[in-house]
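Hey team,

Filing this mostly as a record. A colleague (T.K.) asked me to run one chain through the structure pipeline before their review meeting, and I want the input and output archived in the tracker in case anyone asks later how it was produced. No errors, nothing strange. Just documentation.

Input sequence:
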Amino acid sequence: MVLMLPSLALALLCLLQAGAEVPVQPDFSAEKFAGPWHLVAAVSNCSVFLKMKDEMKSAIITISILPEGDLAMKVLWPLMDKCQKFELLFQQSGQAGHYLGTFWGPLAAEEKRELRVLDTDYSHYAILHEAQWSGQRPKTMLQLFTREQDPSPQLLQTFRELIPTLGLTEDMLAVLPPSADQCTEATR
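Output structure:
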């Protein structure tokens, strides 16, 4: 599982330094990727994320693949002492593991998002890259999903090694503690 991740970090570093596009998981299988995940770590240059990251807890995310290949994401996130529910829909881009979406932000500004599954073993972890544009400078987020709520120290270390490959810094990282019972109950 974790043995493949260092090669991903090296490949990402080389590609991004060369100005290439962010890669996706080779031979990505949407069907294997579907199901429940926990967002256990994230790093981003988004100002809203940076203001909230120290109070955030792990989100519970359920991925569904629609018949036309689009990706539906249901997110249960403990925010402000209650479980907030979000539903996102990403359209398939034509490349497996690469999805596009348009959403309306908190200030009614249109936000375009690009989601890429960089690496996954489908059973334990997935690393996702998300880019957002809303007329300002682009925002970048790297996310670590796990099937279980507690990631291994080796997996977290490898995730940390990917941070500089995307032009992000360690101080932008949030390792999210387990979510409160209100979101665990909402999944039942």
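Quick notes for T.K.: Confidence is low (pLDDT under 50) at residues 1-19. Residues 94 and 102 are 16 Å apart (CA to CA).
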